[in-house]
Amino acid sequence: MVRKKRRMFDIDMPEDLPAERSAEVPNPPGAETPAAVPETKTFPAGKVGDPSGAARRRGPMATAIGETAHSARERQEIEARIRAENDALAHEHVRLKRLGLVLESIPLEAVDTAKLVRDRKPGADPELEDLKASIVSIGLSNPIRVEAAGQGRYELIQGYRRLAAYKALLAETGDAEAWGTIPAAVMPEGEGIETLYRRMVDENLVRKDISFYEMAQLAVDYAADPATPETDPDRAVALLFKSARYQKRSYIRGFIKVVERMKGILAYPEELPRALGLALAQRLEEDPECRAAIAETLKGWEGRTVADELAAIRQQLGVEAGAEEDPRAAPKPAPKRAGGSKAKTSFQLNRKEGRARCTAADGRLEIRLPRDFSTIDRRRLEEAVRQMLDRLE
Length: 393
Known about the structure:
InterPro entries: Chromosome_partition/occlusion (IPR050336), ParB/Sulfiredoxin_sf (IPR036086), ParB_N (IPR003115). There is one protein chain. The protein has 393 residues and is an alpha/beta fold. It has helices spanning 60-98, 128-138, 160-173, 176-179, 193-205, 212-224, 233-240, 246-261, 274-286, 289-298, 306-317, 378-392, and strands spanning 103-107, 111-112, 144-150, 153-158, 181-187, 344-351, 354-361, 364-368. Strand 6 (344-351) and strand 7 (354-361) form a beta hairpin.
């Protein structure tokens, strides 16, 4: 006889007969005695054998399928939460990057500095050594700011001196791992040129060492930049220095005259004190010959110091050292001789002691020579001056 194999999931049948049956069961055909009647049983609701079928025994396969479906739902819910968190983080990253708050380490050679005209004059920076020492000691506390330019290139917006310090450290040490890259806040490409200039200017306004001459030079360069909409340096001051006080903007406009008319003549224009620079600007406006007189005094004067240059300017303006620092003191008008001739005559003479600089003015004759005249006997000095004056008659 072939026995049918019982399947594992076909075991959810009641273990006992139904609870209520007739007390007598007819004998099967051919039986001589009545069949035994099973004892009547009742089942609590929900238990095995419940005739209502409220609780049925589940097979192992059904249990496994249910557990698998439950795990799948939990996994889908977890994955959905992870995707939502990742989307939120991505949006926040984009927002912070647009604000320039996401830092990247970029190669020095990938940074270009041609898009904006810098407000620093070319040449050696005397403060670069201090900046390098600070970076080596405590690191770069203020990252540079660049604009993405595509193809792995960046345009510098802020941090020219910091970039120069890193380049100098790389050149001195050759340590590309330490100084070959620089921390930078990368701005998205596409900001207007006016905004980029404003970012650079606003950062520089907090610097204590930036001079009025440098700020005026930046306004002049901005007006000359073909990429900017403004061509008038005076109006460029209003655009670039919106956050500065009105009085400060007025000073910058005054220095524009010095920038435009003394270019190539002064070796240390950024060292001009505010009041002296404004006095020079006013004199250049009133006396067209002032520029030529200063140029003649400084012509060929090699190795001159900041003090020498400032002294020559003060001499031409007729002010004493320190007197022009009083903003209430108006610069003296340039004295002129009858006929409109030059009020002063300046020239230089080569002597064995060095270069003698002579200035002749109304009521004054001055000779500057690198020699201590106080060591000369008074009578001898007096006789020499007398003979000179006699020969001038």
